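Lab notes, practical 5.
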Amino acid sequence: MRRPHAVASCALALGKPDKLRVEQAIRDGFLTVPLTISVQPGRDEEVEQALTKLGATVESRDPRIGYLRAEMPVDKVEDAFLITGVSKVDVDEPLSNKLPEP
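Output from the prediction step:
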């Protein structure tokens, strides 16, 4: 069960630029968005497992600097902020595999 203040802080944690990126990804039909996640020292495996349970695919991690990169389902992005051991989450622009049109 989530505590009310945890949910409230989650809403505050998703800053306006990140919220706009998630909203744009949804409008553009993306099912996932890339996240860059800062992790507290020694908690990278724990955070990776929690992300995986939320449906994310961890693409890379570097425990030396406390960094993870993951593809997260758009409807679970805010949940990433609630994971114990996460210091910061940044939503990156979704990348399209479409070729540019002339």
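Observations recorded by the TA: Helices lie at 4-13, 16-27, 44-53, 77-80. The chain has one domain: 4-91.
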